[in-house]
Amino acid sequence: MPSRRRFLHHSLALSGLGMMPSLACAATPASRVIPADGRRLAVVGLGTWQTFDVGTDAAARDNLGRLLSRFVELGGELIDSSPMYGSAESVVGDLAGARKLRDRLFLATKVWTSGRDAGIAQMEESLRRLKSPRIELMQIHNLKDWKLHLPVLRAWKAEGRIRHIGITHFSPGAYAEIEDILRTEPLDFLQINYSLAEQESARHLLPLAAARGVAVIANRPFAEGALFGRVKDRTLPAAAADHGCRSWAQLFLRWILAHPAVTCAIPASNRIEHLEDNMAAGMGALPGFEEQKALARMAGF
Fold it and tell me: CATH homologous superfamily of domain 42-235+259-285?
């Protein structure tokens, strides 16, 4: 988005550093453990909603191919998609295959339909689009018909077709039901909205997920751009650099990653400079709760 591009360039100009050198000199990408199997996962992933829905547009696909390669170069792993994201699954599958990146990616997608048979058919189609007989994470999107889909996901996990299972949502209106599910059903992942603009999930869901050994993917990390709008007339405080932040995007992401229950945040991007900016937020040591408070104050929260 133009506003983010302006903020990014302005912040970098003030810091006197370009994005490529800062990443080249950065520490190893931070990672957190997936409780279900002990595997470590890079803390900044990649969302595909809208950004990867480009159909057969050759120029757009070429750009996304370069972006996906850069994502992997910078240590990125988790790429999240869904059947509801138009052509995104197919684009991810085609590009990962063409660039021989599949073995470096942690593929996550979702089932989003009513009925057991329809869910199975949709998941089969997702695997076909992703060009992979096995994926790392299958999630029930927005809890749609979850009681029917969850036993199928467990069966597929037992068969080795999926490695992890989870649920997703973005609306506080669903939090009570999510809490009940977390308390009663064994899950590997919860994908939920968590950002400076949407902090409600930290009250009960994030602590409960941690207690239940459930990894957390933070979606909507910029609240669909609302956070950039909130700081549009502000300069990034110089003190942000002391917390590893050289742009507003990095501050917003590092605030999220300060919560120990968050395993990975998934900002979406179709611009390489934005991707690099996002990935820099996950380099080196992560902040803790005290730093999170300081970052929130800098952002005016």
Answer: NADP-dependent oxidoreductase domain (3.20.20.100)
Domain ranges of the chain: 42-235+259-285
The single residue listed with the structure tokens 């990014």 is 8
- Strand ordering across the sheet containing 189-193: 46-47, 78-80, 106-111, 135-140, 162-168, 189-193, 215-219, 262-265
1, pLDDT greater than 70: no
State the pLDDT at residue 28: 87
Q: Give me the phi and psi of 267, to 5 degrees please.
A: -65, 140
CA 25 to each of CA 28, 70, 273: distance values in angstroms, whole numbers, following the listed order: 9, 16, 16
Whole-prediction pTM: 0.92
pLDDT at 22: 46
- The confidence score (pLDDT) of residue 55 equals 98
d(CA 269, CA 73): 16
Question: Which residues partner with 32 through β-bridges?
Answer: 41
